[in-house]
Design goal:
Strand content: 5-15%
Helix content: over 70%
Largest sheet: 4 strands, mixed
Shape: elongated
Number of helices: 11
Distance between the termini: 28 Å
Length: 260
């Protein structure tokens, strides 16, 4: 029997107390796929508030509902398409032979298309409320409820680094430009690799490579701390979360040799 894949949901508490959840899935389809084949484990540094976990669970429920709608839509696409096509042909036939109109063909096509669209939408709603869809929805929600959160020494460390970066954006920029090496044991390395992958999906790395050249010029032009207000305004303009991006750069630099 093949070993089950591991996946993580990370909770980080920002310096201002706001929760930040990092997820291994960005789309409902990816969520359904991971829930089916992976052991998803929750990890936190400072314990999250119950309200934050409830908000996360509700968000995942909504993603699961979207995944079920797409799944049942793909599963029933051919009969749905054929029935809608049949409705179009029937409506076109009725319009052609039983309804007289001053502009032939156009009215029949419009009538057929409208009838086909209505049938397609109605069938989609019917399939989404079917017993098969309901069973899948219950299955996914049960899998979401099984995601248990436990304390992680690694995430305690990440939170401490994140809070340091949030206290001084100048320090965060130095780490982005010249990321340091992080010493990791085997368990921390696994979590670090998952952290890096989740942050990669969060950032537009192609754009940020260009922005890094600007940040490097800030560092090379003088002490960043002396220009922190200017740098902060620039970061806000670029909508760059420098403290979090510095975390990504540091751990990416550390786990990269293993991935190459």
């Amino acid at each position: 029997m093949a070993q089950q894949e591991n996946a993580f949901v990370f909770h980080l508490k920002r310096k201002n107390g706001n929760p930040l959840f990092l997820l291994p899935f960005k789309t409902p389809t990816r969520l359904m796929d991971l829930l089916a084949r992976a052991d998803i484990r929750g990890r936190y540094g400072e314990e999250p508030m119950v309200e934050a976990l409830t908000m996360l669970r509700n968000d995942l429920y909504r993603m699961a509902d979207s995944a079920v709608r797409m799944w049942i839509g793909e599963l029933r696409f051919i009969p749905r398409f054929l029935i809608s096509t049949g409705v179009f042909l029937v409506a076109y036939f009725i319009g052609s032979y039983f309804i007289r109109d001053p502009i032939p063909l156009v009215d029949e096509l419009v009538m057929g298309l409208v009838a086909a669209v209505i049938a397609y939408v109605w069938l989609g709603k019917r399939y989404s409320s079917s017993t098969q869809a309901a069973r899948k929805r219950v299955e996914l929600r049960a899998a979401i409820d099984r995601i248990a959160f436990t304390e992680s020494a690694f995430l305690h460390r990440v939170e401490a680094l994140l809070h340091d970066n949030e206290r001084s954006e100048a320090d965060a920029i130095r780490q982005i430009v010249s990321p340091g090496e992080q010493v990791l044991d085997a368990e921390e390395r696994e979590e670090a690799e998952h952290l890096v992958a989740m942050l990669e999906s969060r950032f537009d790395l192609r754009k940020l490579r260009r922005e890094e050249r600007v940040l490097r010029r800030f560092v090379e032009a003088g002490e960043p701390a002396a220009r922190e207000q200017t740098i902060r305004r620039w970061l806000q303009l670029q909508k760059l979360d420098a403290p979090l991006y510095a975390i990504y750069k540091g751990f990416k630099h550390t786990v990269q040799p293993r991935r190459s």
